[in-house]
Structures are given as structure tokens and as C-alpha cells.
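agent> Task received from the user: take the single chain below, predict its 3D structure, and emit C-alpha cells. No templates, no multimer pairing.
agent> Plan: (1) validate residues, (2) run structure prediction, (3) serialize to C-alpha cells, (4) report one or two observations.
agent> Step 1 OK, no nonstandard residues flagged.
tool_call: predict_structure(input=
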Amino acid sequence: MSGQSEQRRKLILEDGSVYYGTGFGAERDAVAEIVFNTSMVGYQEIVSDLSYTDQAVVMSYPLIGNYGITDEDYESRTPSIGGLIVRDYNDLPSNFRYTKTLSELLEENHIPGVTGVDTRRLVRSIRDLGSRRVLITRPEVPVEEGLRRIAQTPVPHDAVARVSSRRRWYARTSNPKYRVVAIDCGMKLNIVRMLNRYGCNVTVVPYDTPAEEIRLMNPDGLFISNGPGDPEDVTEVIETLKTLRGELPMFGICLGHQLLALAYGAKTYKLKFGHRGGNHPVKDLTTGKIEMTSQNHSYAVDEASLAHTPLKVSHINLLDQTVEGLMCPEERMFSVQYHPESAPGPQDSTYLFERFVELMAR
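)
tool_result: status=success, residues=362
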């Protein structure tokens, strides 16, 4: 866009910085936490990943929307992302599979999008200064009013309660070998597909399902899903995991990894700007192999706090040395911070589902 007068949308960050762009998707104002994602593909999976609840995602790759939206690739049917900010949005996709445009998906789910933003500058700002809150609004809104609206909007602590399943549901597979109960904290659908692929019938339960109810289902294993927000807010799941420790094999991904750490007495902390994208190198300390991983999280497990727990670090991030995996072999529990089921990729870490199946087989 050649000038400010032509802009239709405005980003006001809580440090007072301003960015202009053109709107797509839903034309409404929104306050969200601004974060960035370095993936080159997979914008549909990002938009429909419930872990992005209340977050405005800046895509560092400039071309977004060019292959549209397909019916088979959703991670959730009810996206709850706080907003999408891109450099160059394409509303004329070229893809024989596409059924609607990205803008139509955002509009249907009341999610604002902004294109034409200097995303290189914005990503550098988030990297250098950290994640902050942002108001997506009209260009005529004064900065002072925007900052006041940000300050008056409370930080939500109920994200998991808003996105978790309301009732139990099932995903069955042919010739099943194992029964898995999955605690839904905002679970990606591809996790369920992967568990089915490895011969598991899956019973998905709401996040606040008590331990006794899970025991009555008599599962072979317990899975704890990804999800949004601060893990310390999800006290219901932490208490359930404390009760069921050691009773059956457990596998946690992303938020599930953090919740297991808290249930074992470790601590978590918020990262400066988080890890989001499909290009994070992680080393498996049990094999020495290095995997390229897909990640999406703001919080990490405090390694120093593990000293007084039975947990051992199984994976580390080679970029910043943060904890990427935990295990407690004596209690048949392990977890990873990244996404081994990642779609559209990478596929380096699917062996973790085999590891879970092996624990149930024993």
C-alpha cells in the first residue's frame, strides 16, 4: 500500500509501536498476544490449532493463502486463533483440493486478518523485545485509546476450559490392539489420527474428567494433549495426573508435557517469544539422533526444578538448550515439548507413537 490513508487496519502493540495493513477475514477489533511462526506451509493447520487461542500469529513466510483451505486438513473444526498477520495474502488460491479461501474461513469464525504488514520488522521486534499484547483495530483509533483498551482487557486464564471437548467422544480404528484415553486440552486432530494409525482405539475426554472416571474406562494408556495458555492454570489435569501416576503408561505432547512435569513436582516458566514453526532441531539424548521438529509453545519446563523429581531429560532444543522431552521409565511415562504428529511436517518424530505402543504392549 502506498500510503497510510489507504490502510484499513492498524496494529497497536502495548509498547506503543504501530503497524498498518489491509484487513481480510472478520472485520472486527481484537486484543491478543502477538507471536510469530516460521513455517513456510501449513497455515490452515496453524489457524485451526487450538493452542493458538487468544494469540495473533505473525507468519514470517510472506506468501499466505495461495493453496486455500481443504476439508481434510483441519486440526480443529472451530478455530480460536486471536488473529492472523501476513505480508502478502492471496485470495485466489490454486489447488484442486481447496474448498474455500483462508479469508472465508477466518470470517466464518470471527477471526481478524491483516495483510500488507511489514512482517520482517514485526518478527524482529517480537524476537528482540518478546511477545506482547496487540490491538487489531481501525486506522483512525488513536494510540492512547488503543493502549487503554489493551490495559483494560484482562489476560485470560480459562483458555483450556473454552477449547476442550464438552463431552466424551470416540475415534475407533480397524483391528485395534490398545485402548487409549486422551485428555483433551485443545487437542490437534492429527494426534487422534496417529494413535488410530498405530492400532489404538481412542476415547477423548474433557480436560476436567476426574481420575476415578478414567480408571473406570480401564485404558491401556493415557495421553495428555497439547493446548493453549499457562500450564499452571490447568489445575484439574495436574491433579488427575498426580492421582494416576505410575498406574498406566502416559504420553504427553506440548501442554501435556508441561502438565506432566508439574504433576511430578517440577516448574514451568514463560519463554521470551516461544517456539513456533517446523524447523527446530532437537536432540534425543537416548539415541543421540537429531530431529527437525514442529513446535508451538510459549512455556517451557525449568530444568533446575527437575532435580527433586524422578524425571529425566530425554530431549533438548539445540537452539537454546531448553528441555524438549522428559521420561520416568519406572512409572512408564514420557513426554515431548514438540509435535511428533505435525502436519504437514516434518515427520522425524513419529517413532514416539511406537514408543507409547511399546509401553502399553509390556
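agent> Step 4: summary for the user.
Residues 119-129 form the longest helix (11 residues).
agent> Done.
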